[in-house]
Task: structure prediction
Amino acid sequence: QISKMDHIYRGAEVTIISAAGEDEDFGLPGVSNRLRSPQLKARIGDTLFVSTLAHPACVIEASKWSTRGWTYQEAVLSRRRLVFTEEQVYFECNAMNCCESLHVPQIVINEVGSPQYRSSGLFSGSARVNLWDRDEPYRSFIEHATNFSWRTLTYESDALNAFLGVARSY
Result:
């Protein structure tokens, strides 16, 4: 199935990503026995101040997950991504993104032309380059190869298989 990961990620309704901990034994914070970091809050008089937490892009970019070669295809090829961090869950698809730290009505998130909630999310940046850049497909491919080359693999011999799904997209 390793050589078919592009088909698996593209066909999945949602890809569950664990961007918490150093390895697969860490679990999903808030789902397994591992608790999530608390969202800090303070009451001053009648006003409650609540932390919006760190931006998910910063947390995910700093995670071990974002350094691993095999996870690159997850980020680039998945249609929908549900990312568990130690603080919150983050969702992104090709049309929108949202996180738990801010309560925003679904109608606002899905509102056409609402740029603050459109998919300018974390996978739109360094990892999620447009696979089908009609103007410059070669440039887009080079960006993917460069982004992938910074990631680590336990076995260098896995490099081709770990990038195969992205390459096959072209």
Remarks:
- Residues 95 and 113 are 11 Å apart (CA to CA).
- The two ends are 20 Å apart (CA to CA).
